[in-house]
Design brief:
There is one protein chain. Helices cover about 50% and strands about 10% of the residues. By secondary structure, the protein is mainly alpha-helical. Strands 1-3-4 form a three-stranded antiparallel β-sheet. A hairpin with a 2-residue loop joins strand 6 and strand 7.
């Protein structure tokens, strides 16, 4: 059941109080985390077009990535691109929501899949060229949950992205404000509030992310751990991201004993 609108409005203030308790300023932290998007590049098609014609994404992946020719390799690229969508579209909008108390919704008609730029460092493949009018916290929560629930069947059935990969990536995007202070806020408090925030959304994102107090090299922090893998490790230039579900059991056992992690992909912020 969705939280009352009055309770949802309090989220930016709850987050501000969390940061105050750690000696941090919300506006400074979130403003620094918000990076301008590179929208000065060719757009190949919109997210809306990709959702209605999933073969556009498959064909573009095969054209852009010589390694992605087998079915498994294509699925790995599509899974990572869905993570890219969550981290570079949903995450910045969530940061704006916590900063200003309002934010635009992701708009599939204005979100575009950008062309690769040979010889240059690649930004996110997805960018939102223009944004609609901002909405309040309650409308943001209901609007985003409707969108990610509507996108899921396409990514799952037509593009082969696993439930764990899809929903854990969405959860990382929605948890972006907490990732900003992963190693500076009080870990238990960050984890409690981050998990509670994900529960506001009537979707499966909360089921596939666990926020865990941890200690790395004697330093306390809060980290999100996936229950599904984005498949980044299958890419030629990939590796094990710090939220990786492959090493989840080993990492969870390590963290439960509050020892520094030595597993591949020990967590680093990636937003």
């Amino acid at each position: 059941m969705a939280a009352p609108e009055s309770a949802l409005r309090q989220w930016p203030e709850q987050y501000r109080q969390l940061l105050v308790g750690a000696g941090l300023d919300r506006d400074t932290e979130l403003a620094a985390a918000l990076q301008p998007q590179d929208t000065n590049r060719p757009a190949l098609f919109s997210l809306s077009q990709g959702l209605h014609q999933p073969d556009l994404l498959r064909q573009q992946v095969r054209a852009d990535y010589p390694d992605a020719q087998s079915g498994r390799a294509v699925t790995a690229r599509l899974s990572v691109l869905q993570q890219d969508l969550a981290l570079n579209i949903i995450a910045p909008l969530t940061l704006r929501l916590f900063l200003h108390g309002e934010a635009p919704l992701p708009d599939p008609d204005r979100i575009f899949f950008g062309a690769l730029r040979p010889g240059k460092e690649q930004p996110s493949r997805w960018f939102q060229a223009t944004t609609s009018a901002p909405v309040n916290v309650s409308d943001f929560v209901s609007g985003v949950e409707a969108l990610v629930n509507a996108w899921y069947p396409v990514f799952r059935k037509a593009l082969g992205v696993s439930p764990g990969a899809y929903w854990s990536s969405i959860g990382l995007g929605l948890g972006a404000p907490f990732s900003v202070v992963w190693n500076r806020g009080e870990p238990a408090a960050v984890c409690r509030l981050a998990q509670s925030w994900l529960k506001q959304f009537e979707c499966d994102a909360n089921r596939f992310i666990d926020w865990i107090p941890a200690e790395f090299s004697g330093h306390s922090c809060a980290i999100p751990q996936r229950k599904g893998c984005c498949l980044q490790y299958l890419l030629p230039d990939g590796g094990y991201c710090g939220t990786c579900g492959i090493y989840r059991k080993e990492r969870m056992a390590t963290l439960s004993h509050q020892k520094p992690s030595s597993t591949p992909g020990q967590w680093q912020p990636n937003l």
